[in-house]
Queue: 2 jobs
Job 1
Amino acid sequence: MTLDRYVEFTCRNSFRILRKVTVLFCIVVGVCHAQDCGNGNIRQVREASLRRAGMVVLNAIKQKNTDGLLSYVGRHGVGFGPDKTRLSRNDLRSQFTRKEGAYCLFFSTACIPYMGRFKGLEPDSILSEWKISYIDWLGISKTYATYADLTDDAGSSGCSGYFSASAQAKMKNAPDNIELDFSFENGRWWLVDTVASAP
C-alpha cells in the first residue's frame, strides 16, 4: 500500500470512527438529559417509580415523618394553591419546626385556620377548601384509590407527573383528592406542587 493510499484509508476510517463516536455520544446525552419521560420500558419504569414516590410521600405524611417528607422536596421547593406560593426546603423545615403554615396543611387540622398568620400559606380559593389536614384526610379515608400519570405531553421541556389519592366517599371538610405533582430530575422524582396547584 502506497503512502497516499494509507493516508486516505486512515483518514476515511478515522472519520467513520469519529462519526460513530459522535452519534453514540448524542444518544447517551439524549438518554441522560431526556426532554420527556421516554418511551416503552423506560416510560413504564418511570411511571412505576412515580407511583412509589407518591406512596412514600403519603406514608411520610401518615407517620408525621417531616424529614421523610422533606427528603422528597425539589430544589426549587414546593408550590401550594393556584397562585403557587412556593416554599423552599428550608422554609418548610422552619414551618414544620414552628408548627405553622405548611405543617398545618400536612399534619395538624387544629392550626389550619391560622395557616397564614405567620406568612405561611395564605388562604386562597383552593387552600381554603382544606378544613382538615392531609394526615386527617388519610385517616378518615382509610381506603383510597391512587393514580399516577406522566405529564410530559404537549411539548413540555422535562419529565413530570402527578400522583393522586382519591377518597372512596365524598369528603365534607376537604376536596376528594390529594394531588402531589412531581418532576423527574437526576434519576429520581421530586415533589414540586400540591393542592391541585395548576391554575
Job 2
Amino acid sequence: MHETSRKQDRKYIPELAVCSVLVLLSLCGMAWYETSGLLKHDIDGLLLMSICLLIATIFSVQFVQIVRSAEWIKFPGRHRAKDFVLSTSLEQAHPVHAGEQSTGRTK
C-alpha cells in the first residue's frame, strides 16, 4: 500500500517541474530586467514586467493546486467548513443525537 502511494506521487513530478521552471524563469526575467539597467519606464518594460508577473502568477497557482491535489499540503479552513456542514445537517435530521455526536467529536 505504501509503495502504490509513492508511485502515485511520482506522476506529479513532471508537472511540478514544468511549473517551477516557468515560475523561476519569469522571476529571473523580472530580476534581470531590474538589474540590467534597461528599466526606462516605457511601455515595453511595462509589458515585459506584466507578462513575467502573469506567467509567474498562473504557474504558481497551478503549482499549489497540484501539491494540494496530491495531498502534500493541507489547508486548515477546508476541513473546518466540512465539519460545520455535517454538524448542521445532523442537527436538522436528529436534534437529540446531534449533541452526543458533537461532544464526542470535540474529545
